[in-house]
Amino acid sequence: MNRPSDTPGPASPDPTNSAGPHGGRPTDPAPRTPADAPARPTDRTGVDRRILALAVPALGALVAEPLFVLVDSAMVGHLGTDALAGLALASTVLVTVVGLCVFLAYATTAAVARRLGAGDPRGALQTGVDGMWLGAGLGLVLAAATWAAAPWLVAVLGADGDVATQAVSYLRWSTPGLPGMLLVLAATGALRGLQDTRTPLVVAASGAAANAALNAVLIYGAGLGIAGSGLGTALAQLGMAGWLVVVVVRGARAAGASLAPAAGGVWASARAGLPLLVRTATLRLAILLTVWTATGLGPSALAGHQVVNAVWGLAAFALDALAIAAQALVGHALGARDVARTRAVLRRTLQWGVGAGAVLGLVLGGLAPFYVPLFSPDADVRRAAVTGLLVAAVALPMAGWVFVLDGVLIGAGDGPFLAWAGVATLVAYVPAALAVHAWAPPGAAGLAWLWVAFAVVFMAARAVTTGLRARGDTWMVVGA
Length: 480
What we know:
Layout: H1 44-77, H2 81-99, H3 103-117, H4 121-156, H5 161-174, H6 178-193, H7 198-221, H8 226-255, H9 263-295, H10 299-335, H11 339-366, H12 368-371, H13 379-411, H14 415-439, H15 444-471
Transmembrane segments: 51-71, 83-112, 133-157, 177-194, 201-220, 226-249, 285-304, 310-331, 352-372, 384-405, 417-440, 446-464
Main location: membrane
Keywords: Cell membrane, Membrane, Transmembrane, Transmembrane helix, Transport
């Protein structure tokens, strides 16, 4: 299944002996971090080093997550077109549930980074602990609700017959992993705020490998079919969560932070995340509308959409590595009241984002005819997937711009603006998606028009709103 999160390991610094990932003692006024490097704040080489020091490990962690989707899609795809179409619907529901809680990572990253930049490592780790308690509680509630509502949720997306049966099976077997998924979000947010992106890299890579092995055993060895894929994903996520929690708890103990849930801290985490919840809800509504539209284009187009969406997710998570670096560095710079460094990070991450999007577009679009057959033996599904991928590839440079700007504004704590901007971009996208649903032909041509609506129209609306905001200074509020 696809996850909107990023996620921890042995090659990473151990917070047990430091307040942050770079060895500052808990009593130090400000632990040394990449953002404290001696290069001048506006020196391009120095800024690039700090960006890459965070983005490269984050890239590995973020790419490992979409590999869950690719592995699931490849293995389930060989169970048949109905199974792959069912996976498309079920994973969309599951990602929506988890995606609505992505504020656990984003708000925690910004809050922890600001406190670290202001010289308060104990407060930074306390914020991370409070976020994990909130994630665990939400995960238990959402797991029970999603399991009970699975048939209704699948029906709302327009599925029936064998496709609906497959979707409900995957969804219900996946839900035990929801508490783990939300704990992964919160703990990863804390580590990112501490500017440790290497721990999430190792844990995410380990989780992806475990997921692949579990799927192979449960789908084929145990004969569970699509249910085995859901169970394998749940077990892998729970294992990743346990690993991450141990790392953050050890760091919190070393810094003198309390491990007990503080009502005020948990409430502060929830309040800070509310605007980001609204922002994420608009994104998920757009994605749900896209899947609903793909369902109306027929099983082949829906199965093809799952392939395109999986590859788009891989590219998006790769580009999001730069947004993760921007979140941590912007939050730290604003906490330290360094506006010049904030502007330098904004400028360079945008340049990196557009360039990386162009490279990914060329690679993923150009090689589409060669890797799409790995996902399905059905010629109609392959044709639809390749056509959709060519459209998506063209839009990737603009997507790189959008994702980086999102990261910058989240790192600045500009959640209220992002909430309103999300509503505006959804309003711009709805007519385009409805037009595809009403007039687009079934099959490959219809899927191409659907991705024009999503990857071009929707992304352009996001680029305009966030770009205009970043040109001003209102979002740059300094201090912890």
